[in-house]
């Protein structure tokens, strides 16, 4: 069996591919796309049996790609992948098209793989989702039905970072703070420091502002790890962290965030 994974976040493509290797080792991921346009081209070139489509991608969304695939004589089996389209889950639950919530856990992925294997068995006689069924689902998701509310971009859930010679996939909940330097941004977690190339200004846009506070142009701290604040001998406001010795400087532009603490 051959598969394509389409997601605009490379670390989530790699994460899903790794999970698939665990639960479906005989499946070959033959293509990886970063957007909907790339996905269509690669599907045409590689003719995968299964495609995993992120719903929100630049260029064409996963729903756009599916709408074009359903017009082909033999469309692949489609699994939608979403981080935040909770409103759409009800529609998927009652359709022949499967879905996964990011990041896909092993138990849920095993169920999806079980369904796909059943459909892909030559003896089953079950083809990919009929065009009419898929078209009905897409219409429900895009023309008012359960999909009426426009989804908001989801905050970052995972960080792909370098740690020495290895690459780590760090859950965002494990991050204590980010600190930028000349070329990299350091990601501090309980067991050490890893590095990413994302500038802190770009990173700020991807974080939940209720959970992560920017306290300096080069520092973003996880609110749940803030123990309190104090002033040092120079009169600077310092953030104290729970269970950690380092203290982080709050620049003047962000002092108001801590008024009343």
Automatic annotation (TrEMBL):
Gene Ontology molecular function: any one: phosphorelay response regulator activity
Pfam families hit by this protein: LytTR, Response_reg
Start and end residues of each Response regulatory domain: 2-117
Entry superkingdom: Bacteria
GO cellular component, one term: protein-DNA complex
InterPro entries (alphabetical): CheY-like_superfamily (IPR011006), LytTR_DNA-bd_dom (IPR007492), Sig_transdc_resp-reg_receiver (IPR001789), WalR-like (IPR039420)
Modified residues (4-aspartylphosphate): 54
PROSITE patterns, alphabetized: HTH_LYTTR (PS50930), RESPONSE_REGULATORY (PS50110)
Keywords: DNA-binding, Phosphoprotein
GO BP: any one term: regulation of DNA-templated transcription
Domain (HTH LytTR-type): residue spans on this chain: 159-261
PANTHER family: REGULATOR OF RPOS (PTHR48111), RESPONSE REGULATOR RECEIVER (PTHR48111:SF69)
Protein name: Response regulator
